[in-house]
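Notes from the pairing session

We agreed to fold both candidates in a single pass and log them together. This is the raw record for the first candidate, unedited. Please don't reformat it; downstream parsing expects exactly this layout.

Candidate A
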Amino acid sequence: MENDRSTAKESPKRSWLVVYTKSKFEKKADHLLRLQGIESFCPVIKTRRKWADRMKTVELPLFTSYIFVYVSYQEHLRVLQTAGIITFVNYCGKPAVVPESDVERIRTLIQIHPDIEAVSINTLTQGTPVTINDGILFELNGEVLEVHGKHVLVMIKQLDCALIATVKVEKKHVLLRKPVNCLL
């Protein structure tokens, strides 16, 4: 029985949590956490940016001001003491736990779809071109017709006909691929 207790103390239960960072500090905070031996995940996407004299490929965080950390309760203070970390994202007064399957899904999505982006549901407006990234309508291009709470009415133009589907979106964000130019 004592062995069970000592094992529990040596390997405390860890969970994926979300931390809020200073603006444009996601990658630096991720690096600083890793230097401390804390497992963290800052999903990044590669995008091409144009400067006055050249084009350059840069890595940008998928989620602005958020990174994931895999920590136990005992490691919370170390995370909060890391430069650039502001606070844990809370739900009902406790740090919000993200299922490991969701973190793995994000890892897979950014590997499969290098042009993926996170779009706040509040930014979806009538006429926004979108690509569905999940479900039976996966990878179909469409245009937002209406937004009703957490439901988005999307018109999908394929095969010279229009399919209209109501897509229920996630609580905070919907992951969408960049719009296709042919819809504009």
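Candidate B (folded immediately after A)
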Amino acid sequence: MGIPVQTTRAHAYPGKEYIPRGQNVLQALFKDHFAEFKEIYDEKYAQIYGNYRTDRITEVVEEFLKCGDFKEGVARIKCQNPKCGHDYFVPLSCLGFYLCPSCHQKRTLLFGEKIAHDVLLRLPHRQFVFAIPKCLRPYFLHNRTLFSDISRLIFNLIQQFYNEVASRQITTGLVLSHQTFGDFARPNPHWHGLLLEGGFDDNGNFVYLPIASTMQMTELFRQKVIWYFEKNNLLNTDFALNLLSWKNSGFSIDNSVRIYGSDNKARESLAQYIARAPVSVEKLKYEPFHGKVLFKTPKYNDYFKENFKSFDVLDFIALVTAHIPPKHKQYIRRYGLYSSRSRGKWKEHEHLCRLAPDGWKEKQEIAVTVLQEDSSQEAPAAGTKQQRSAWAKLIKKVHGVDPLICPKCGSEMKIIAIIMDPEETAKILRHLIKTGKSPPGLDPNSLN
């Protein structure tokens, strides 16, 4: 968090109050069973989900269990109107992805907004989904960095395909997400891409390349992936040739969803979709006495022939933690015109500046303004106003209420303190309990 920016009234007051969340059902089952899961991981799950994963899983889970726990630290938010003085406390977040549904959802919303308003050019795009056969999927559980090479292979395949269709060298752009999960969080490595429908030649001319049929591209995808596996000694030559001979290969590419250049809502929604979390707590029901987790989906699943599954709680923990990525590895990558290096050079090309999204243009205008101002002024610390402004914006987007607008008088509120000392936190919580403002899900006995 950082210092919140000035906010304005959004509704009449007294207004809707932001109620900080407590801990969720996923945290409850991890608290009850994670220690047991660690003890039996090597014996029961390592062969399925990969060896030497417990250290990485433990690191993420320990932070996840602190998320939303008032005892682990709180931020105090107070109304700046001296005649009001209303305040409340919020717990700190773990900022973890892929395991923590709450923090991952915030990341998803920020990602969707950034891609739609700051990255994608105002041109037609397609959503591409690249799938591989079941026989290759276990390799991605045992080699957690394999996805990055296949991601690069997919972009090179598309770039090559576009060059051949256009009969000249063009440059396209791709935002590609590697998703490790399918329905019911089962392991199913595949890739979702937001692909520019064409590219620019050396003269800055846009070449529009709609792909009506993916049949040829799918066959090329199959050949390149099998060749990669064989070259890296993951498959022997005989099995690679056998895979190439399969009539129903299991490789597929779907590009049925088109995104128009002016449809920002669709761009943001699809960007959120490709960055979604493996598990939503709304779909889970934990039965602690039976050691079971019920996972229910809104739609009937053709593969499982049902819309809910029952899991042993330890099996479910193994399934969910399988989607935790290696440390410092990013499952979402940008290529071509959308890579960070290329976007840094957009301002040098008039045709890209003209078609750039509004967010990118606004940042260029701000950068020019900053350069024109007195450079002797001290710059604000990184991650202060911007981070707290983003936190407030996300809360408003998710819950429909601005946490930095006082629900009593409508004045600005600010984060005035972050308290992490256990004794001070306990004093605050005891006071809240005494005044009838106990945080959700807090067990008073845990403070003794």
